[in-house]
Amino acid sequence: MIAALPQDAIVLFLDDDFLLGDGSVSAVRKLFDDRPDVAVATGRVLADGIGGPGLTHDEGLSILNQAPPAAGVMTDTYNAYGCNMAIRVATASENDLWFDTDLPFYGWLEDVDMSRKLAAHGAVVKIDGLYGVHLGTKKGRSRGVPLGYSQIANPLYLVKRGTMSRRKAYRLMGRNILANVARTPRPEAWIDRFGRLRGNILAFVDLLRGRMSPTRIRDL
């Protein structure tokens, strides 16, 4: 558990399909040492296979090996990307801020939720010294129905908690619903569009019944 770590620790979360660039860990450590105001950091994603069929390991390594050197650039960002996200344990611990267990399994949008909670107590930044390739491997990912349910339930839950604006939530939900409706007749081979659309519909039914919750995916 994060709470059991030393107060001066920095935790770097990486997806198991994220290929980390050389020097990234040192860049993260230096950032948090030099900038005590930083609470969360994320880095450059040179290529992201999540929106397509995914990248092979060899493709990812090729992209990584051709990466331009870091220029020491740092910018503010709204939230960290969960495939590469570093947090300062002291900031989380002192303010009793942890990952929300009511966002189970895949925990869709938990990176946004955690980033925005910590943003009230420190800077959320993106640095180019932390970098890599997100392969977007499709094996082992959430089934269509639970993910489709989360596409509706989780943004609305975050709005209620105050960690996502209504505008961002509605835009995100709308984009996903439209994609699921448009592509269900001829879905991508790597996406269960019908399952996601069914999950969207189940979430709206639960919303009308007053029982919608991110935890409902445990029963789907």
Descriptive report:
There is one protein chain. With about 220 residues, the protein is an alpha+beta fold. It has seven helices and six strands, in the order ββαβαββααβααα. It has helices at about 25-35, 55-65, 90-95, 110-120, 145-160, 165-185, 195-210, and strands at about 10-15, 20, 40-50, 75, 85-90, 125-135. Strands 1, 2, 3, 4, 5 and 6 form a six-stranded mixed beta sheet that branches. Helix 5 runs antiparallel to helix 6 and helix 5 (about 145-160) packs across helix 7. It is globular and about 50 Å long. The model has no long low-confidence stretch (mean pLDDT about 95).
> What class do helices, strands and sheet pairing give?
alpha+beta
- Average pLDDT confidence is 95
**Count of individual helical segments:** 7
Number of strands: 6
Cα-based radius of gyration, to the nearest Å: 18 Å
Beta fraction? 15-25%
Q: How are the SSEs placed, and which strands pair?
A:
Layout: E1 10-14, E2 18-20, H1 24-34, E3 38-48, H2 57-65, E4 74-76, E5 84-88, H3 89-94, H4 110-119, E6 123-134, H5 144-161, H6 166-183, H7 193-209
Helix pairs in contact: 5-6, 5-7, 6-7
Short summary:
The chain is an alpha+beta fold and 220 residues long. Helix content is 40%, strand content 18%. Strands 1, 2, 3, 4, 5 and 6 form a 6-stranded mixed beta sheet that branches.
Which terms summarize this structure?
6-stranded mixed beta sheet, globular, 6 strands, 7 helices, alpha+beta, 220 residues
